[in-house]
């Protein structure tokens, strides 16, 4: 299964763990579909970062597509 | 929707009917298409159109007696198109472009007696269909009556080309034959069908047992057919002869296939048409050249340019939705039908189905009342039922409705100090959200001036659920409403919103409903308004008042009572546009919603006056100066420019509704017991452009507060050490909200917000 990487350098750090973020492979879901992606996340607590570009860009497109399936 | 319903819907739309010229043409030449090419000087393309329907363009293009011209709609305006002159011009300057195929031979021997246009046409048509066709004639050349036409009009080459065409399709031409009844019997013995061309064959040699020709099939008994015909005493008409030839060929084809000779043939030959074409705005432009005169290329282009390209499109001309999707209702309903039939794959029409404002403007405009709104709304119900409705289309609007119905906003009370109600004021969720102060002031006015006690109900009529295709939710809201009115002793409901009025009138029984406007109009003393009035204003009727004639009249009466001069403009009243809210259009298709609001505002150059809160707010958002009628009747002393009061946006509406309930409860009913959510104390500092962004992204301040509240306890946010900003997320139910903010002394400053519906691993349920 292909993994799409959206991981890129970011100034954001996890406040609770005081850690810089690292790329992490994970699966995200919507309406019974599952996608394997790589996003930036906290190495300690695993909290995932989704930046604006991704949320209103690619992610939104895919959501719309799945909604019409 | 099943096939039958689809056909039934389709038949309402006449956009695909023949234009007047084509309907009147016995062989239905696409004159409109022909004219479009001719107007561009594209003679070859125009010729292709003639080649497609005329058997012998070289001949017919020159000598047709053009019944189409009489039918041309321009006759109602100035003069018909010179269709004949243009066809003449085209065939004189081109040679055949389109060569129709010859189907593989399939047996069936047909004898055609005679040499006129009927014989030639039938022989050609049958040969093209793969029948073995033979012309037998006593003449020495083909043509019959047309041989008498002057060479300057019909030169020899035209007839020669026709003969070559017949030969190319393998028609056998046997000339100079002696034709007697005996010979006919002998020749037709071993053939399958016979046609007599009455242009050149006299009736007395036809088979003795013949019957009167059937006008639809031209059948004269047995395997014999007869048509065409100056010998029967008819005036010579080239197009009639060609049409008869074609009709006879079709009959013979049916005969050879053992099919009915007469079923379903109403479309053949000259017909009437159901098309409607408006001549409004079409300039008067008579023909420049004499009909008889040959046209120069320039004259031809100019004359063809007079064709108005007849079509209906009346609804599309007004509707932003149909324009955006480049559909007219007939094509729209087909797409919806196909969308419903998809089992696996992308339902490409979903957004289209959810973008209609369900406003019925098209239906009122349409000469056949095409019910686009009903088709789209039913399609939504079907999507919901099949669990294919895209969640993002209506969720936000339905949550907004749920909020209006919730304890935070809803209220049901008798007039303060009383325990019965003759009236029940129902201002509606959108007025409460847009201008809570005018709700309070108008309520007080009603209490003071109506004979009888006036109760109040803050709620929503449920129209968002109806529009969203959610019958169960809609039903619930209506039942709750009916129960509430019942519990108040069945008072007369006074609505301030046309949508509520339309819903209650259509979907409740036994409840008496009227509009605030009719009530105010019936009162002696109107509130003394102190507001300054523009000299002329345009009353923008909401689309939901389309069937509320009395409401529209009362609004105008009120305007004249308070001294507002009204500019009446077209496409208002029963033809009014939607403001973009109708059918939840603006939620399913934001851009289209905005365009629709703008188009509505542009209908009049004057400052606007609305009596629907949603119209008011949507139009003001497009920059249109517009007030709500209640703003004038009950002006807010704190608002100085009534025409520019900003749209409160979605968060503002929520807050207004909640505050309205609190305010009424406290000031009128001395109730102070309000529970507030823990996050509601969070102070937000938001710049207008961020507010605007939040509105576009359907993110409420409430959502932002929830995010901050959620992450504050355990610092579960991201931080940017460069500027100390935080980025936090929270997924209350179906949407993950992200907020970028920083902490300041007086509260949280919001820099950015966005959301997504995809679920991250840590948010998996
Ligand atoms: S205006 Fe053009 S399309 Fe309309 S009837 Fe006349 S020729 Fe036909
Ligand atoms: S108004 Fe619209 S729906 Fe009605 S016939 Fe014309 S194109 Fe079709
Ligand atoms: Zn962490």
Question: What features would you describe in this structure?
Answer:
- The complex is a heterodimer of chains A (69) and B (765).
- Chain A has a single domain (3-68), classed as Roll (Ubiquitin-like (UB roll)), CATH 3.10.20.
- Chain A has a three-stranded mixed β-sheet, with no helix packed on it. Chain A has a two-stranded antiparallel sheet with strand order 2-3.
- Chain A starts with a strand and ends with a helix.
- By secondary structure, chain A is of the alpha+beta class.
- Chain A has helices at 52-56, 58-67; strands spanning 4-5, 13-14, 19-20, 22-30, 33-41.
- Chain A is built from two helices and five strands, in the order βββββαα.
- Chain A is 22% helix and 35% strand.
- Helix content of chain B is 42%, strand content 11%.
- Chain B has 33 helices and 19 strands.
- In chain B, the strands form four sheets. A five-stranded parallel β-sheet of chain B has the order 3-2-1-4-5, covered by helices on one side.
- In chain B, helix 3 (31-39) packs antiparallel against helix 4 (43-53), helix 3 packs across helix 12 (297-304) and helix 5 runs antiparallel to helix 7.
- The chains are: A alpha+beta (69), B alpha/beta (765).
- The A-B interface holds A 11-16, 21, 26-31, 35, 45-50, 52, 55-56, 59-60, 62-65, 67-69 and B 345-348, 350-351, 390-393, 697, 714-722, 726-727, 729, 736, 738, 752, 754-762, 764.
- Strand 2 of chain A pairs antiparallel with strand 16 (718-720) of chain B, so a sheet runs across the interface.
- Bound molecules: iron/sulfur cluster (2 copies) and zinc ion (ZN).
Short structural description:
With 69 residues, chain A is an alpha+beta fold.
Could you tell me the number of beta strands of chain B? 19
Q: Segments of chain A where pLDDT lies below 50 for 5+ residues? A: none
What ranges of chain B have pLDDT less than 50 throughout 5 or more consecutive residues?
A: none
Return the CATH class of chain A.
Alpha Beta
- DSSP helix count of chain B? 33
User: What global shape of chain A is seen?
Assistant: elongated
Alpha-carbon distance between the two ends of chain B: 37 Å
What is the correct CATH architecture of the largest domain in chain B? 3-Layer(bba) Sandwich
Q: Give the helices and strands of chain A as they follow along the chain.
A: EEEEEHH
* Helical content class of chain B: 40-55%
